[in-house]
Amino acid sequence: MTIRWSCFGSCALSVSLAGMLCLQFIDSGWAQDKIGDAAGANAQVEDSLDLRGDLPNPRRLNASELHKLPRLEVRTTDPHNPSKEIVYSGTPLAEVLKAGGLLVDSGMAAIRDTITMTVLVEATDGYRAVFSLAELNPELTDRVILLADAKDGQPLPPREGPFRIIVPGEKRPARWVRQVKALTVRKN
Question: Quick one: 37 and 52 in the same domain?
Fold first, then answer.
């Protein structure tokens, strides 16, 4: 009986040690992936934005090109502190899409096309939000959805920028996408 227990104990100890070594190896691999992902995310956070999808001129816009587009300021309450007001500066999202060649026309045929199109906003961390093009078209709404690059007169902090979507008037900031890297237009 003692011999069987010793064999069982040795085997159990060996299996436990092997399992711990495997877990440590796997954990160190995960840690490396996380570090690599963080380094990759930092490397991806550029002062540029990809315009993709069903656009006449899909392209990458850099910050200086975006600054040449029409700009405005939006005053809104801080979604995390309603007693505080924030001023965001940037370019209306419709103007950014026009830089990709999207025509926002007031003709009836164009409006029919507009109401069936969507814009997918993608962030460097994988977060995504969708807008109907009708929500962005100044011919159909007075609300301005902003691609911001400044907050209270300063460039956006790294955890928010270089670009962030601001949607004034929404009860929750679920579509206030930070670290925007791409806009993809789809005809549905």
Answer: no
Torsion angle of C-alpha atoms 167, 169, 173, 179, degrees rounded to 10: 20
Q: Round to whole Å and give the CA distance between 91 and 166.
A: 10
Could you tell me the pTM of the whole model?
0.74
| In a shared domain, residues 25 and 108 | no
Alpha-carbon distance of 165 to 122, in angstroms, equals: 10
Residues 61 and 136 in one domain: yes
CA distance 118 to 136: 10
Element (H, E) at 42: helix 2-44
pLDDT (tens digit, 9 = 90+) per residue, 103-136? 876 666 677 888 899 999 999 999 999 999 999 9
